[in-house]
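Many introductory courses stop at the sequence. We go one step further.
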Amino acid sequence: MEKIIVTGGAGFIGSHIVDVLVESNFEVHVVDNLSAGKIENVNKKAILHIVDICEKEKLLEIFKDAKYAFHEAGLLQVQFSIENPIVTNLVNVGGLLNVLEACRINKVKRLIFASSAAIYGDQETLPLVETLEPKPLSPYALQKYIGEKYCELYSQIYNLETVCLRYFNVYGDRQSVNGAYPLVIAKFLELKKQNKPLQIVGDGENTRDYIHVSDIARANILAMKSEKVGKGDVLNIGSGERFSVNQIAKLIGGEIQYLPPRVEPKHIVADIKKAKELLGFEPTISLPDGILELMK
């Protein structure tokens, strides 16, 4: 049974990756300090190590004999990174370096790194394609971009296979309203449950690319298996479609309350041709179906 490490495996996305790996009969080890993750998210058949990714020596021990690793851990809030750039850099860059070193020293075959579409910042052209020049607008976005370059470098000079997946707006089961991915869908569902108005910032016509967490998990497994990637490749993982906040509010239903606008990109949508070509990735859950499932 092959050993696989998932950092952040008690979190929203990481726990879904763990579930798929366990179902595929891998020996799965979860590394999570439980600052954002929850023990109840961790698959009963996985082995949990309550360890911080900044604890390098402990990581070196855990990564022994592992064949693959998925790096999902980190401090992921954009606003928190703006207020705490040094702390987030220590975790998002320093923590990743510890993971890369644990992989290199233990001769792990491949690392799949959770990157972010935040790297693009404001762009004039849509859809967003991987060849666009990054324009990070927050320390978090810059830290993810630095992470991608470190992965590419480790592939070049240490022959560690790496793949970087730029996630777009992920939603689904286990998503916390106050957690690292406080997306509009989770917030709207919580407000509806409390019989409160759905709060929309601005005119509600901003559009985003929403991707279901089960599709994200599947993309990670495809990135682990594909023989067409492994040299620091950067791939968009989104749906390739965009929906406005007003459309989401209509799908969920209820009273709407409009709030003053804030500065943010007007429209975001992924070009996913590269992921289709190199991973064989296709999103399987449409946003209306995904929201309907969550409402049940």
